[in-house]
Amino acid sequence: MLGKFFQKPGKEDDQRVPPGQHLAKGFPVLTYGATPQVSIEEWQFRVWGLAKPATFNWSDFMALPQHEFTADFHCVTRWSKLDVKWTGIKVTDFMGLIEVDPKVAHIMEHCYGGYTTNISMEDFMREENFFAFKVFGEDLPVEHGGPMRLVVPHLYAWKSAKWINGLEFLPSEELGFWERNGYHRRGEPWKEERYSNAFGF
User: Fold this and answer.
1) Most buried residue, 103, 139, 150, 180, by CB count within 10 Å?
2) 77-93 pLDDT, tens digit each
3) What is the DSSP letter of 42?
């Protein structure tokens, strides 16, 4: 299995691959549950909680500055893909559109299909985070989270929510789907924050 789908990082990539990871030869797809099918015409994105409620459509996002991003991608299931090329919108640019209460400390990411994952405001607001709608120059395939997903390169990929459709702003931490089921609250690859100590891992 290692030779067919994955390989050990070579010396030139060793410093870029977190401990316990192997390089994927393709771009694996891992999804829990059904894959939502959402067109850009019906796609909507909401913000609520400790923020002024607002709803955005696809055109609202496309009116924001668009950028090319190249980022490494690390999955908690022990594979990494280097130099993934995305097109998207900076989180910081989107955040300029909304009003957030100063008491916000955490965010719950919400997605079509019901998936959730939590992230701290500090981790979310990093300059390198973005909402992606293209990968390798093509529209983001539905199996990879199209029409839009969040990408948070410095955390394991389950924090880069596929099919994202909303942000709930919170005064304190609440756990999302995988975090409630044994995954680490934060998910830092270089620290191998894969699972929660509360579950005995």
Assistant:
1) 150
2) 999 999 999 999 999 99
3) T
The distance in angstroms from the start CA to the end CA of the chain is 25
φ/ψ of 178, rounded to 5, equals -70, -30
pLDDT for residue 130: 98
Which whole-number Å values give the CA distances from 36 to 8, 103, 113, 147, 169, in the listed order?
33, 33, 6, 10, 24
Q: Which residue has the tokens 């919400």?
A: 110
Rounded to whole angstroms, the Cα distance separating 93 from 76 reads 28
Rg (Cα) of the chain, in Å, rounded? Answer: 17
pLDDT for residue 1 is more than 60: no
Quote the CA–CA distance of 183 and 195 in Å, as a whole number.
4
Please spell the DSSP secondary structure of 59-127, one letter per residue: HHHHTS--EEEEEEEE-TTSEEEEEEEEEEEEHHHHHTTS-B-TT--EEEEEETTS-EEEEEHHHHT-T
- Establish whether the linkage from the previous residue to 147 is cis, with ω within 30° of 0: yes
SS3 176: coil
State phi, psi for 149 to the nearest 5 degrees.
-135, 160
- Higher pLDDT among residues 12 and 84, named by residue: 84
Separation of alpha carbons 201 and 183, rounded Å = 10
